Amino acid sequence: MGNSEVTLNFKTLSKKQFQLTFNASETLEVVKEKVAVHEHLLASTVKLVYQGKELTESTKTLQELGFDPNISIIVVGKKTKLQTQTTNNASSPSNVNNNITQIEEQIQKSTPTKEEITLSKINEIQQRAENLEQEVKSLKDKREELGEKKYIFEKKKCDEYLTLCLIDLDGINVEGNEELRKKRRTTIVFIQSVQSFIESNL
Q1: Fold of 5-79
Q2: What is the pLDDT of residue 86?
Q3: Nearest to 8 by CA among 98, 76, 70
Q4: Do 138 and 160 contact (CB within 8 A), yes or no?
Q5: pLDDT digits over 155-173, tens only?
Q6: How far apart are the C-alpha atoms of 89 and 96, rounded to whole Å?
Q7: What's the pLDDT band for 75 if we cut at 50, 70, 90?
Q8: CATH domain 114-201 topology
């Protein structure tokens, strides 16, 4: 039991959030399996996206990968909802074959689409901004504790990081997708509101 524990945050495309704890020596493949069980997903369809990139190094350990616990890993996968169908229709070979075909189709469709990856990038930036918002709000109460010089430095750093979030959003192509365009716009407005808070309250 000498392995240290690592708690990771996960978020589905439907914005459901959950945490799972692993040993630092466990591999990414084990993480995928546990996520599949937790979310009732077909294990073969599970894709994990971190900071806009799909995680594919299945044999690497969590210690080697060094995830930031403050950044959620986006989960993409297909639900195992065909299990009940297979059980109910097990007596019919044609139904079993149909179910197998459907499962194969689901697996083929499990690779994250361009839209899903774009959405995960926007969600990741949104989360960075939300973390910065919490940091900004806590700064107000730490002014005396930090001292004026350190306080100004932290305030400027938060503002610069928020600006980087805006730059990252500007580099995301949402042309032709109204839902993604609205999501990006909402995130931009949120970031600008945090920057306004810094200007008017700090």
Answers
A1: Ubiquitin-like (UB roll) (3.10.20)
A2: 46
A3: 70
A4: no
A5: 999 999 999 999 999 989 8
A6: 7
A7: very high
A8: Methane Monooxygenase Hydroxylase; Chain G, domain 1 (1.20.58)
